[in-house]
Design goal:
With 309 residues, the protein is an alpha/beta fold. 39% of the residues lie in helices and 15% in strands. Bound molecules: N-carbamoyl-L-aspartate.
Length: 309
């Protein structure tokens, strides 16, 4: 896999070949996790710089590096504790930290901010979510989760449900799904539709897309249902958010409409999109996704640091 200049900022930079190489490496990493750990990245340091809240993503990166025998320097609260408080530029922060570590995973609330941090960095930078922009590693693990079970994505009908305007996960998912002949159903409130540039890009690649507000009418067609949270923190007012809150709720009743072999994914955290009563259903995959996240990030960091599992 070759990203230029070896950063992962967007899934636009991930080719179909990259994707399958990564998946094969991730399968090997599953064996490492089963055994406990390896020393493939012994002596390497990962720095996690988070300007926005996170539980899973940051810990997943850190667990991945520790499983590979490397070390971690973590700042979960860059907003209040870093030199940016002293007005340091993002570029300088990136440059300085890159002289001390081998790879960085960065989350920020502004789209494009992670790119800025990467610009003067001497080491690979991974976008761990930039505002309403992208979240490449989440999308990689989502598609890995589907691939592991279905093997062939071609022909699948995939629903992406929720806040498609502000959700960075759906954006990154789309740039990976464009490599396959899938039918997409975008389900969102009218005010939270997928950005036009993304739908245009997918259509250019020959994908069929249906846009709707109605989950009840379309859920029975889906082989895969990718749920996402309404992104409360991106709304200009609470009043606006309340109009969309709990727009879609997958409960036991709606679950009855779904195909028997469908898969239900969600990056978590969930608010009210998927009711806890769905958790024990054989189609629910959102907790397995978390496990897949560690091995995908292991495979990715190995690749970016020139190693193989
Ligand atoms: C997602 C994120 O941060 O974008 N969560 C995650 O990384 N697992 C999804 C979300 O917050 O809705």
């Amino acid at each position: 896999m070759k990203f230029t200049p070896n950063h992962l900022l967007s899934t636009k930079d991930v080719s179909k070949k990259d994707l399958f190489n990564l998946f094969k490496q991730a399968l090997k990493c599953e064996r490492i996790v089963k055994k406990g750990k390896s020393d493939l990245l012994k002596g390497k340091i990962l720095s996690t710089l988070f300007f926005e809240p996170s539980t899973r993503t940051r810990m997943s990166f850190e667990a991945a590096m520790l499983r590979l025998g490397g070390s971690v320097i973590s700042n979960a609260d860059m907003k209040t504790t870093s030199s940016l408080r002293k007005m340091e530029s993002l570029k300088d922060t990136g440059k300085v930290i890159s002289t001390m570590v081998d790879i960085m995973a960065v989350r920020h609330n502004e789209p494009g901010a992670v790119k800025e941090i990467s610009e003067k960095s001497a080491v690979p930078v991974i976008n761990a979510g930039d505002g309403s922009g992208e979240h490449p590693t989440q999308a990689l693990l989502d598609i890995y989760t589907i691939w592991k079970e279905k093997r062939n994505l071609n022909g699948l009908t995939i629903g992406i449900i929720g806040d498609l305007k502000n959700g960075r996960v759906p954006h990154s998912q789309c740039f990976l799904l464009k490599h396959f002949k899938v039918n997409l159903v975008f389900v969102s409130p009218k005010s939270l539709k997928m950005p036009k540039e993304i739908t245009a890009e997918l259509k250019k690649n020959g994908l069929k897309i249906r846009e709707t507000e109605n989950l009840k009418k379309t859920i029975s067609e889906m082989d895969i249902a990718l749920f996402t949270r309404i992104q409360k923190e991106r709304f200009s007012s609470l009043k606006e958010y309340n109009k969309c809150k709990a727009f879609y709720v997958l409960d036991k009743k709606l679950l009855k409409e779904m195909k028997k072999d469908a898969l239900i994914l969600h990056p978590l955290p969930r608010v009210d999109e998927v009711a806890p009563e769905v958790d024990d259903d054989s189609r629910a995959r959102y907790f397995d996704q978390v496990k897949n996240g560690v091995v995908i990030r292991m495979a990715l960091m190995l690749n970016m640091l020139g190693k193989k599992a």
